[in-house]
TrEMBL record:
<feature type="domain" description="ASPIC/UnbV">
    <location>
        <begin position="443"/>
        <end position="507"/>
    </location>
</feature>
<protein>
    <submittedName>
        <fullName>ABC-type glycerol-3-phosphate transport system, substrate-binding protein</fullName>
    </submittedName>
</protein>
<dbReference type="InterPro" id="IPR027039">
    <property type="entry name" value="Crtac1"/>
</dbReference>
<dbReference type="InterPro" id="IPR013517">
    <property type="entry name" value="FG-GAP"/>
</dbReference>
<feature type="signal peptide">
    <location>
        <begin position="1"/>
        <end position="25"/>
    </location>
</feature>
<dbReference type="Pfam" id="PF13517">
    <property type="entry name" value="FG-GAP_3"/>
</dbReference>
<keyword id="KW-0732">Signal</keyword>
<dbReference type="InterPro" id="IPR011519">
    <property type="entry name" value="UnbV_ASPIC"/>
</dbReference>
<dbReference type="InterPro" id="IPR028994">
    <property type="entry name" value="Integrin_alpha_N"/>
</dbReference>
<dbReference type="Pfam" id="PF07593">
    <property type="entry name" value="UnbV_ASPIC"/>
</dbReference>
Length: 609
């Protein structure tokens, strides 16, 4: 059922007149520390052979963040260049990371760039795409569980050989339930290889021609850098927001998953669009668009680039964008790359993170710093003055909550430089994390709308790219102190919507589309004893192998914790349930990842007595 936008607007207006003037007051100063070494990440380095590096390779790198082993904590894959191509690092749930055994059996292609986690075969485990900056065939790895991956052969991406990848975005453009790919190219002849339709986990087919996606600009070169997707006109299908170099930023409207139709590109005035962030920065109920570009401070353009800087496009409704008045904090960050909206200080307003730098040309670009810009609630952003000075060649950004303490941390993947982790030092602030789930998978493309005593806020999950990088796919809300939650609506990718009540702040909630759905125990499972007491042992007899990723959920879909496997005897598992403090009396569900099954497996209901 479509969301009633008029009702949302009325709710916002009511809150505007009823809120106290201090509703958005921040409780403490926002600070970050460089926690790279403390987290065990001090040895990660992206390396290039500078004497032979091409311009495309100097734009390359990146990072993708996702919970790959389903333990509830964000992991990441980072491009490392000539050192090893790329590395998979697993969250140890204590603020540190450890490289996966045998690197998860992942081998990145030559000149690797633009990693992306997405669901290729529709099981609950996110799979991994890695592109190449020098024309090598992109690779696809199937997630086998427990941090192990397996190379997929004959993906259909072999058609891509000889083309560089400057970014990849997962998008179910026709809403058939399978995630497709959109791949960007830079400074190459325009080819019909951008949209790749997922053939239900049996490879990809190029789809540009069928979608009527073509080159809007002359000469016939492709300069796309970063693709994001949002349903701007609310017809149920995601539209394409494509940041492009040399004045080629463009917007395409998705008409029912059958074709894309371009809008007037003259609206977009950025001269060298590269990275992007999409989000409702002004809290008016629609998604706005920030595009990074180049600001040349001395006004002397030594190369073939523009110098006017980044652009912030405000959504006036239904995807009608208008350029906001230039402000130095927004436009003048240097040579911009990745960008991401996120509420870092938990005041209810989206802030903005931007990476910058270029190794050639004017010396000032070589020392460009990454910038964290704080939303001042009046349409402008101001630099956070004490953000750690990162003067490396910033490319990718990964936003995540490393320790599940409620605040957002920042990973920066530098080109020909070290990885950096900046930890957020907020304490005891108000927040909420929502993971919408469909068939055990994070519902990429879901829109989460939160109604509170401090306002109405919305976040989309997934279908985004910062520039060769991807955030943790979760709807994170920072909330002013003393905020109470009235309700929460999830608009699912299939067009349905669900409403949830009794959501508490400072919690992580995994919400299923069919709240409270009843599941029957499958015939090849025996769970006993059931009912069972909290803190005691639970046994599972199964004819199929179950790995150690076993999770417990409340009947309303809230994540409770993990069940520890303490003994394994053939097909009999013995689990240690959490204590009564975590499992009060009631109904719960346990979920599994079963590598031997092709389809997602239903949760099993248990009763705590």
């Amino acid at each position: 059922m479509p969301i009633n936008r008029s009702a949302i607007l009325c709710f916002r207006m009511l809150l505007f007149f009823c809120l106290p003037a201090t509703a958005y007051a921040q409780s403490e100063p926002l600070t970050f520390i460089d926690a790279t070494n403390m987290a065990g990440l001090g040895g990660i380095q992206h390396l290039l052979e500078q004497r032979f590096a091409t311009t495309t390779e100097q734009t390359s790198g990146g990072i993708a963040v996702e919970d790959v082993n389903l333990d509830g904590y964000a992991d990441f894959f980072v491009i490392t260049g000539e050192r090893s191509g790329g590395e998979l690092w697993l969250n140890q749930q204590d603020g540190t990371f450890k490289q996966a055994n045998h690197n998860g059996h992942i081998e990145a292609p030559d000149a690797a760039t633009g990693p992306l986690f997405f669901y290729y075969n529709n099981d609950p485990l996110p799979d991994l795409f890695i592109g190449s900056a020098n024309g090598a065939i992109p690779v696809l790895y199937l997630n086998m569980g427990n941090g192990n991956f397996s190379l997929v052969e004959n993906t259909g991406l072999e058609l891509y050989e000889g083309l560089s990848t400057t970014g990849a975005t997962a998008i179910d453009f026709d809403r058939d339930g399978w995630e497709d790919l959109f791949l960007c190219h830079w400074n190459e002849p325009f080819t019909p290889f951008h949209f790749f339709r997922n053939q239900q986990g049996n490879g990809f087919s190029p789809y540009d021609t069928k979608l009527n996606f073509y080159n809007l600009f002359a000469p016939e070169l492709d300069h796309g850098f970063t693709a994001n997707f949002r349903d701007l006109n609310q017809n149920g299908f995601p539209d394409l927001l494509l940041s492009g170099d040399f004045g080629t930023t463009q917007l395409w409207i998705n008409e029912g998953g059958q074709q894309f139709v371009p809008t007037d590109p003259a609206v977009f005035t950025d001269q060298n669009g590269m990275g992007a962030a999409v989000g409702d920065y002004d809290n008016d109920g629609d998604e706005d668009w920030f595009v990074t570009a180049i600001f040349d401070g001395d006004g002397v353009l030594e190369g073939n680039w523009g110098g006017s800087g980044n652009r912030l496009y405000r959504n006036e409704g239904k995807g009608k964008f208008m350029e906001t008045p230039p402000h130095p904090s927004i436009t003048q960050t240097g040579w911009g790359w990745a960008a991401s909206f996120a509420d870092f200080n938990h005041d209810g307003w989206l802030d903005l993170m931007v990476t910058n730098g270029w190794p050639r040309g004017e010396d000032s670009f070589k020392g460009d710093t990454s910038r964290l810009l704080i939303n001042n609630h009046s349409g402008q952003f101001l630099p956070l003055p004490n953000f750690p000075p990162d003067t490396f060649q910033g490319r990718g950004i990964g936003i995540l909550d490393v320790e599940l303490d409620g605040d957002l941390d920042i990973l920066i993947a530098n080109n020909n430089g070290p990885l950096r982790l900046y930890k957020n030092q907020l304490n005891d602030d108000n927040w909420l994390r929502i993971l919408p789930l469909q068939a055990g998978r994070t519902a990429h493309g879901a829109l989460v709308i939160l109604y509170t005593t401090s306002g109405v806020f919305q976040r989309q999950v997934g279908e985004s790219s910062n520039y060769v990088s991807q955030n943790e796919t979760v709807a994170h809300f920072g909330l002013p102190q003393a905020t109470n939650i009235d309700s929460l609506i999830i608009q699912w990718p299939d067009g349905a919507s669900s409403t949830y009540y009794q959501i508490e702040t400072k919690t992580t909630n995994l919400l299923t589309q069919k709240k409270g759905q009843e599941y029957s125990t499958p015939p090849d499972f025996q769970v006993f004893p059931n009912p069972v007491r909290a803190g005691s042992l639970l046994h599972i007899q199964s004819d199929v192998f179950i790995n150690d990723n076993i999770f417990i959920w409340s009947s309303s879909g809230q994540f409770i914790g993990s069940a520890m496997v303490i003994q394994r005897d053939n097909r009999l598992l013995t689990l240690q349930l959490p204590p009564a403090a975590s499992l009060p009396l009631g109904e719960y569900y346990i979920t599994f990842v079963l590598p031997e099954r092709d389809n997602p497996f239903p949760p099993i209901k248990i009763i705590i007595e």
